[in-house]
Every structure is written in structure tokens, then in C-alpha cells.
Amino acid sequence: MIVDFQHHYTPRELFREDPGTGNRTFFDDRGVPSYSFHSLLYDLDEHVAMMDESGIDASVLSCAEGMCGPVDKCRIINDRLRDAEKNYPGRFIGTAHAHPLGGPEAFREIARCAEELGFPGVVITSEFGTTLDDPALDPFWSECQRRGLFVFVHPALRLDHADAYDMDDLARSVGREFSLVQAVIRLINGGVLDRFPDLTVQIAHLGGGIASVLGRIRSYQDKDFWGTKGNARHGRLPEHDFDHYVGNRLVFDTAGFCGDIRSVKSSLVELAPSRVVFATDYPQEIRARAKVREFVEAVRDLGAAGEAILEGNTGLLLPRAGGRQKAAAG
Predict the structure, then answer these.
(1) How confident is the model at residue 254 (pLDDT cuts 50, 70, 90)?
(2) Class of residue 99 by CB neighbours under 10 A (exposed 0-12, middle 13-18, buried 19+)
(3) What is the 3-state secondary structure (H, E, C) of the chain?
(4) Domain boundaries, the chain
(5) Which neighbouring-strand residues pair with 121?
């Protein structure tokens, strides 16, 4: 069973204006490109047609408008994701949208998504005015661990420190990836994964391409060598070595590189195939049916590693929902 673990959907009612037949990119108040809106985002019939052509059995839906968003908008999104599950049995899996620092109201929405809607995970961004190792987030991590909900960390759509990314669409092309890299480091060195040993975290975009800089990150874990031992901010270390968490605790997905198999191949030099799940970022970075099909085929051509990514690792995030979807599809 092939599951797309990063598949985006925006309910039509949340569009700011009619995108027509083209593509409209909105810029934030700093003039930085933020998000592209187009009709594919809400055309679930086309989503299913693409999935059929590509051999994708089910897709896990998330919505940019609800990532660390206000609770009223999150409720709308969560309800529409449940509608998608009902209207296309076995094809879509919803995820909870709620702000992790949204207080009791947000926690009630997480409970509703888990208990009433049956969603298996929660979506947040890599930064949202604070970082993922902020102790203020511990109640959120604790709640997700208690409920058995995986947490999907999507790159921040608005970077907290974006001054250096104000040209060349740098925030979207590389700034968001750096945000994911620092999120991984903070989750590990900040002790989040140690404090919550049963927490499951999915990191988007192959950890922001973290494989390419893991050698450097490992070196800087030697606090004696780099002269930071004992420093409260820079001398932090987790209970285990860095690779323990990369190889055993975190789950990475293959979205974020526009279907370019070379990025997946290069990441597998460092990331164990057993910790990687398939994802497309459809219909943003990939929008054409043929491009998705080619990406699926290219991952399969990786042999045993590709088979694990496409199908073997689904249970890392969907130990229960995966079986539910199989039954529904049958």
C-alpha cells in the first residue's frame, strides 16, 4: 500500500479570491512570496485521478491555512478533511490542525480530531514565533504522545527571521529547508525526544536536506573540541549521540525536492531507508499526473530501499490507520 504522507488540500471556501485557471502567488507584508494558490488545491477529483494513475493508494491531507492557525479556521479545515475521507472512502487520511500554543481551546480541538474524527496525527510548522525546543511546547508534545498522535513538522510558511531571504524567492527555495534543519537539531539537543520517548515525529522534506550537512553537525556535537562545553545555550547534548535520533526516532519524508530523485538518493547516503516515508508535496511542488507517476517509478527503481520507502515504512506513522485504509479501500 503506497501512502503519500505530504499531500496538500485547501477547502475552496478558504481561498481569498478565485484563482481562475492559473496560479496566484501571494506575498507577505514584507514582500516575500508566501504561498501559491490554484484550483488543484481543492479539486479532490483530480487528486484521486492523479493517485490512480500513479499507483498511490491513499494520501495524508494537510492544509497550509491551518498550520499553527487560529482555532476557528482549523475547525473548518478539520471538518473538511473528514468530509474528504467520507466522500472518497479509503483514499484520504485527515490530520489535526491546531496551534500547539493555542491553549485549552486548541487542545479540545486536538481531542476532537483524535476521538471523534479519528485522525492519526497533528500538523505544525518548524517555527511559529518560537522554536520546537521551547519548554512551553511540552504540554503539546505530552498530549500527542499520550494520544498516540504523530506530529508532522512542515516547514514554516513565514520565517521568523526572513530579512536575508527577501530576494530571489530564497525563503521558499532554501530558507524553509534551513528552518527544518534547525528544527531537527533543536528537537534532539533540546531534549524533546528524550523527555517524550514514545513521541513520533515526521520531519518534512528529508529534514530540509539535512543529510548534506550531517558531517558538520556531528562534529559540532563535540563540545570540548569547539569550546562550548558548559555553555547553557551552546553546550547542550541529548542523552544519546545525534545519529541515534536520526536513525531511530525521527521519520523523514521524500517531499520538498520537486520530485527530483537525485535529492532522495543523496539523502540516503546518511538517512536510513527504514526511516523514510514516501511523500510528494502534491499539488504544490509537483502538479502534473505524469510527474508524480515518474517520481513513484523512480523511487521504486531504488530497489529494496525504494520498496521500503513506498510501502514498507507506512506503519511508522499509521500503525492503526493504515489497516483502516486498507479495509476501506477493499
Answers:
(1) very high
(2) buried
(3) CCEEEEEECCCHHHCCCCCCCCCEEEECCCCCEEEEECHHHCCHHHHHHHHHHHCCCEEEEECHHHCCCCHHHHHHHHHHHHHHHHHCCCCEECCEECCCCCHHHHHHHHHHHHHCCCCCEEEEECCCCCCCCCHHHHHHHHHHHHHCCEEEEECCCCCCCCHHHCCCCHHHHHHHHHHHHHHHHHHHHCCHHHHCCCCCEEECHHHHHHHHHHHHHHHCCCCCCCCCCCCCCCCCCCCCCHHHHHHHCEEEECCCCCCCHHHHHHHCCCCCHHHEECCCCECCCCCCHHHHHHHHHHHHCCCHHHHHHHHHCHHHCCCCHHHHHHHHHC
(4) 3-329
(5) 150
Scan for cell 494520544, then name that residue. Answer: 147
Q: What percent of the chain has pLDDT over 70?
A: 96
For residue range 142-167, list pLDDT tens digits in order: 999 999 999 999 999 888 887 888 89
Cβ(154)–Cβ(204) below 8 Å: yes
Q: What are the two backbone dihedrals, phi and then psi, of residue 273, each rounded to the nearest 5 degrees? A: -55, -25
- β-bridge partners, 240: none
Instruction: Give the list of residues 6+ apart from residue 221 with CB closer than 8 angstroms, or none.
Output: 237, 241, 242
Domain boundaries 3-329, corresponding CATH code: 3.20.20.140
Q: According to the model, what pLDDT value does residue 161 have? A: 85
- What are 21-75's pLDDT values in tens digits? 677 888 887 888 777 888 899 999 999 999 999 999 999 999 999 999 999 999 9
Q: What is the CA radius of gyration of the chain?
A: 19
